[in-house]
Task: inverse folding
């Protein structure tokens, strides 16, 4: 009864966490944010980068008390692997085997991960970070399906004169991110289908960090040897490949406390209970003279990594226009544009894990993954489908890693992320001889005025003049410029944001 209850609680909590985080990535209305915005901030790596010391301390204590339940309850990528593994077990029961820990591989990957972060090679960080990988999959593969289903409901609702649903554009933000998402999902699904938690215990840097601490967990799964009949069912159902029934040992550094082994044991030989002190006895209850110093060092290293890192660290085609227009082409910006609240290009590049949450949440279709190889998948701004409205601050509210700091709407309206630049050869009053002034009319801060193209001739065509000190770089001018395919005015980014 108790073992069934513990497993039910674990599955219930994991289901709530998985649904909540997935909804955050696919929802385009902002509704999910009001209920589940805390879930991304409970992810370990993101909490470290954001300097959320309370979250890091809580997760550390949770692991010391209960083992690596973070990996089976809180991490969405771990839960996604469990779903794939469940289908694998349905196809073939008792499919897993015991294997020794690949310590050289997982510690080597962790060292690479830390070195890449310190060196600013963000692409390695993003491809190894579990929450970011899940976000990449959810944004590129699940959100289009969700939007398509919504649009079907919107069509049906419109037929009955209901406005309960409304259409939302489905568009491809980046071919590169789509390809990577498909590749990562395929790799993770195959690994989980065949071998359970291979990624978590050999590649995932978060799993490796938690493994340092879980060695010393107060509660853990252990054998009652007198009850064990060596039937091997526990080993064959351990998705973490960490149970050796022959020696009656459970590797606590890899165990994700899923409870499958306890449920499968027909003789009650496994239980989740207080463990003997790891510095005095091992899982078999014998004196541990070999691993004492190594275990102590692992614990100190893990704690230092966590503590040090934590402390350190409605879119429309046009506004009111009904005519179909040619698609715009993005200009080549010398300095990428990053959202208000990110403070600087450097802060974005060092803190962002490329989870895609800000991209999927952007209601103005301004954010998209960068194609820059070193910072692949990190968000940049571009104004072909919309502009960054001064009253919107949703991206700053959802970022869990501190790459985009929370910013108030009134502060956003005075934050300069870039400045507009006029391109004379593209300007319609000069190329077509017609009046325009779209950029000046729609500038929310009045940074653009129309002046004669010939200062000595008041009758000459009027063209825009940009007050760079006043411009905030929102992109309204670039987006609403009627020149096609290249706008006659575009926004160049600032490496460090300024305040008016």
Result:
């Amino acid at each position: 009864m108790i073992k069934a209850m513990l497993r039910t609680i674990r599955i219930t909590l994991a289901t709530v966490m998985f649904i909540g985080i997935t909804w955050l990535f696919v929802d385009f209305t902002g509704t999910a944010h009001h209920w589940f915005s805390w879930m991304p901030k409970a992810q370990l790596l993101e909490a470290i980068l954001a300097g959320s010391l309370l979250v890091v301390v809580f997760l550390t204590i949770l692991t010391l008390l209960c083992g690596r339940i973070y990996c089976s309850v809180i991490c969405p990528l771990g839960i996604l692997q469990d779903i794939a593994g469940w289908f694998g077990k349905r196809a073939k029961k008792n499919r897993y085997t015991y294997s020794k820990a690949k310590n050289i591989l997982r510690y080597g990957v962790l060292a690479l991960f830390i070195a890449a972060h310190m060196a600013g090679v963000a692409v390695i960080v993003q491809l190894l970070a579990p929450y970011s990988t899940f976000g990449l999959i959810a944004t590129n593969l699940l959100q289009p399906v969700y939007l398509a289903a919504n649009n079907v409901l919107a069509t049906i609702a419109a037929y009955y004169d209901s406005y309960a649903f409304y259409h939302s554009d489905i568009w491809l933000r980046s071919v590169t991110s789509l390809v990577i998402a498909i590749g990562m999902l395929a790799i993770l699904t195959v690994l989980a289908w065949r071998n359970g938690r291979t990624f978590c215990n050999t590649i995932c840097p978060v799993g490796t960090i938690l493994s340092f601490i879980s060695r010393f967990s107060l509660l853990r799964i252990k054998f009652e040897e007198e009850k064990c009949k060596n039937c091997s069912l526990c080993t064959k159902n351990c998705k973490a490949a960490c149970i050796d029934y022959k020696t009656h040992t459970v590797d606590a550094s890899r165990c994700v406390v899923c409870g499958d082994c306890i449920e499968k044991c027909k003789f009650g030989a496994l239980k989740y209970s207080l463990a003997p002190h790891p510095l005095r006895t091992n899982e078999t209850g014998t004196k541990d003279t070999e691993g004492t110093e190594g275990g102590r060092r692992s614990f100190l290293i893990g704690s230092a990594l966590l503590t040090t890192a934590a402390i350190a660290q409605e879119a429309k085609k046009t506004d009111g226009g009904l005519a179909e227009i040619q698609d715009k082409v993005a200009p080549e910006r010398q300095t990428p544009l990053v959202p208000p609240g990110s403070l600087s290009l450097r802060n974005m590049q060092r803190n962002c894990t490329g989870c895609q949450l800000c991209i999927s949440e952007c209601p103005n279709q301004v954010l998209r993954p960068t194609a820059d190889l070193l910072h692949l998948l990190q968000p940049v701004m571009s104004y072909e489908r919309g502009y960054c409205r001064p009253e919107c601050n949703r991206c700053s509210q959802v970022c869990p890693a501190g790459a985009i700091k929370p910013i108030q709407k009134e502060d956003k309206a005075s934050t300069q992320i870039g400045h507009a630049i006029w391109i004379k050869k593209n300007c319609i009053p000069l190329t077509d001889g017609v009046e325009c002034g779209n950029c000046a009319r729609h500038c929310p801060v009045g940074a653009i005025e129309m002046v004669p193209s010939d200062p000595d001739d008041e009758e000459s065509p009027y063209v825009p003049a940009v007050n760079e000190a006043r411009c905030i770089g929102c992109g309204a001018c670039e987006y609403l410029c009627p020149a096609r395919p290249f706008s006659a005015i575009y926004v160049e980014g600032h490496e460090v944001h300024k305040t008016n």
Observations:
- The mean pLDDT is 87.
